[in-house]
Amino acid sequence: MRVIILLSLCLGLVACSTNPQRLHQEQVINATTPLAKTPAEALRNASAEPMQIAPGWRPRQWQITAQEPRMLLDGVPSNYRVFSVDLKAGKPFLIKVNSWCVNSCLGFSKYVLAPYLIMLDDESKVVGQGFGQMRGIVGVIDQDLAGQVDRDGTYYLIVAADNRNPGELVVIDNVMVVGTSVPANAPRIQVGMGSYPFGSVAPYLVEPQ
To answer: What residue ranges do the domains of the chain occupy?
Structure first.
């Protein structure tokens, strides 16, 4: 029994530390899903999910896998999902996008999908793209998309995996060493998470505008 448990653990560690560059090459670049060259084409190639509004502490997550359609980000294929949200002209909005550490952060290497955000209006025109500074801890990262639009309407948020630098460090967190007895003075180590081509994301509007 111990051998089986040990073997399962080893296999889990190997799976959790899969090289993201190789994974991107094998499962993203060589995929057969639709590949859009522009954000407008990406919008046509996917169905939009209604964005969550103020979901509370446990927002719904969507998986971005090799089965999703792809689009080019600076010439690099990336899988993505699309979300729709109704916004009012001149009213500030705040959209948060959470992304969770893959495979529950098991293994020696920690990875997370780094979302690249593109917002389009109902005429498929890009009104904003990129992302701000990512924040978070080991386990989840988040970023904000804030602003206001010029007219009322339904807007679309493309959440794509940023595959321009697979494996590149996304965020570093200071983690307390396990077994310490005094949290206030506990020694800490730096743990980072690298960019991964797949993962789970949760975009949501903080509150109706």
So the answer is: 2-205
